[in-house]
Amino acid sequence: MELFKSETNFDFMAWRKPSLVISAILCLLSLAIIFGRGLDYSMDFEGGVMIEVKYEKSAEIADIRNALEAGGLKSAVVQSLGTATEYSIRIKPEDAHVGAAAAEAPKPEADKAAPAEAAKPESAGKTETDKIAAEVLKALKVSRADASIKRSDFVGSSVGEELREQGLVAVLFVILGIMVYLWMRFEWRFAVAAVASEIHDTLITVGIFALTAREFDLPALAAVLSVVGYSINDKVVVFDRVREIFRSSRKGEPYEILNRSINSTMSRTIMTGLTTSLAVGTLYFVGGPALENFGLIMLIGIAVGTLSSIFFANPILLWLGVSKQDLMPRSKEDPELARRP
């Protein structure tokens, strides 16, 4: 099945300069949004209260969310604990109109010599957690009298900070691994173009997500990593076609061959994007609040990645000066190979 005929020869590379300028502007705007406005981190990264509730009879997650929203706890995250009667509720202290600063207040120097005084912040934190748990239970009992609290714990922001750092390290590690792989598989120009495309796609995707003012949680982080993997997959297909056409053509300028590569993979690029969007679109529209962020980021990333495969990656290759000599197989008479044991 082909959406575009194999002999199609649309001149995509003619748009390389405007597309690179637009991409640079979008990347700068995304950086300004991410570091200026910032991401609205969820309790996964900011800390908060984890409450486990139990019902005598089965309950629905939607009903629990509705009860919490009616009680003013609109940002609470509800998840099943494996049964229809036990659920976990995660909520930020400020969303419950209760401050949790006392739970993480630094201990004064004078308190180090007084154990009784040093224990006060911990007691205060426990009190604030109990207040939030009581507020949650009150909201739940309005609709279901059989609700009860199994336990409640406070998660400090230090845990969330560690998760943020590990998430950033994971993204950088993935991009570095992709660069090394492409350097070995193709040639250094392809590695540079691929990494530039990955940074481009990730920045713009996260920047657009930040504009939605949604909470950035662990599923959102997983989606960002998935976008990196999805995006590079499409670039590898296009790059492989570039190498194939370079090697099989006796004549042809890089400009022409890059255009032919984009045109010959266009059907595959669009069809892959559409079919993947159907899957992640289902997560966004009917997956519930726990999966909405994952689906939304994937939808944004697929659109951005598809466009960058056409208007960004190959123009970068042309700008770097890719040529047929760089992609031809090395002969056994190559001096570099001859020196190897």
Automatic annotation (TrEMBL):
Claim: Hydrolase is one of the keywords in the record: no
Membrane-spanning intervals of the chain: 20-39, 167-184, 270-291, 297-322
Main location: membrane
SUPFAM superfamilies: Multidrug efflux transporter AcrB transmembrane domain (SSF82866)
Keyword Cell cycle annotated: no
Region (Disordered): 100-127
Domain Protein export membrane protein SecD/SecF C-terminal: 138-321
Biased composition (Basic and acidic residues): 106-127
Membrane topology of this protein: Multi-pass membrane protein
Alphabetized Gene3D superfamilies for the sequence: Multidrug efflux transporter AcrB transmembrane domain (1.20.1640.10)
Coiled coil: none
Keywords linked to the UniProt accession: Cell membrane, Membrane, Protein transport, Translocation, Transmembrane, Transmembrane helix, Transport
Annotated localization: Cell membrane
Matching InterPro entries: SecD/SecF_arch_bac, SecD/SecF_bac, SecD/SecF_CS, SecD_SecF_C, SecD_SecF_C_bact, SecF_bac
Listed Pfam families: Sec_GG (PF07549), SecD_SecF_C (PF02355)
Function: Part of the Sec protein translocase complex. Interacts with the SecYEG preprotein conducting channel. SecDF uses the proton motive force (PMF) to complete protein translocation after the ATP-dependent function of SecA.
Subunit structure: Forms a complex with SecD. Part of the essential Sec protein translocation apparatus which comprises SecA, SecYEG and auxiliary proteins SecDF-YajC and YidC.
Listed NCBIfam families: 2A0604s01, transloc_SecF
Family according to the record: Belongs to the SecD/SecF family. SecF subfamily.
Alphabetized PANTHER family for the sequence: PROTEIN TRANSLOCASE SUBUNIT SECF, PROTEIN-EXPORT MEMBRANE PROTEIN SEC
Designated name of the protein: Protein-export membrane protein SecF
Naturally occurring in which organism (per UniProt): Tahibacter harae
